[in-house]
Amino acid sequence: MALARLNGVAVRGIVSALPARVEDTADLAARFGEEAARRLATATGIHARHLAAPGQCTSDLAVPAAQALLDGLGWPADSVDLLVFVSQTHDQVLPATACLVQRRLGLSKSAAAFDLSLGCSGYVYGLWAAGSALTSLLPRADGRPARALLLAGDTTSHILDPDDRAVAPLFGDAAAATALEIDAAAPPMIVDVGTDGTGAPYLMAAGGAMRAPDQPPRLFMDGTQVFAFTLREVPGAIAATLAAAGWTAADVDRFILHQANEMMLRRLGHKIGATDEQLVLALARHGNTSSASVPLALTDAVAASLKAGALRILLSGFGVGWSWATVAATLGPLAVCETIVLPA
Q1: Segments forming the whole domain that contains residue 257
Q2: What is the distance between the alpha carbons of residues 121 and 110, in angstroms, rounded to a whole number?
Q3: Could you say which of 90, 120, 158, 261 is catalytic?
Q4: Where is the Beta-ketoacyl-[acyl-carrier-protein] synthase III N-terminal domain (predicted)?
Q5: Per annotation, catalytic residue among 47, 90, 158, 288
Q6: Average pLDDT, 10 consecutive residues per value, the chain (344 residues)
Q7: What is the DSSP letter of 203?
Q8: Is 57 a catalytic residue?
Q9: Residue 261 is a catalytic residue
Q10: Is-catalytic flag, 7?
Q11: What CATH number did the domain enclosing 59 receive?
Q12: How many domains does the chain have?
């Protein structure tokens, strides 16, 4: 594990964006049969998912989320110094999607912009990367604190076989935008990250890149291996993060874990000592939205509390790679915290 402390960075707001199209259990029943669809929903806790339209890319979700966030905060586009775009479903092979988003949002040419190609762990990695980069910037001539936009999202439905019942009923599409700003008074964030590349074959989309350019990308997942990895690695990472922060499980107001599967989340919550009140379950109407699942859970299930005051929150993402990342952070009050559904 690698532990880090992030000082002097505040989260100002979060907006999540969902595509208009919804597929629910009734739609799955038409493909897999009513009994199979019912069993899948019962086992996973997922009853509906928002799916991107054909040709609708991850940036098409992230840009409206970012614009709504900038508008809600009253931040001019040219006041953003850094853009980090986290995804594993980029618009195209190159250039970096962050560069395309910089243009679409009208950010300054002096803004730094780069991609992070991570999935389930990506949001927490993005917080660490964006926050660390912000703290390294030299003071601005106008004296304003440095600002960053962290965008995280995936349109995983584009790389699914809709008839593969191992993955099609689980994954939804979403993107989220998070505003960060330098603030010396902000409580520190404690981050733990880890990687085990031996797990790569168990959750992957092998086609569509340089290793297999003639094959279309199709998501494969061995759910048994994912479950075993999660229960093997994540509890220790969470324990290490809590210890480094000087917290116990009882000190945490909410545990926001990667929203992959309700059964797995409940098992994991039990292992880390989270109560039912502390453990957030926000996947019933969204499914597994990969890098967007953690911020979407924040805006979907904890928005009112985060706008009203400060919460001690533990965020943890884990999965494809294997890759995992956890942060203990005091968040709030947030000026903006909402989920929006984009028009069809």
Answers
A1: 1-344
A2: 28
A3: 120
A4: 114-184
A5: 288
A6: 93 98 94 92 95 98 98 97 98 96 98 98 98 94 94 97 92 98 98 97 91 91 96 98 98 98 96 98 97 98 98 98 98 98 96
A7: E
A8: no
A9: no
A10: no
A11: 3.40.47.10
A12: 1
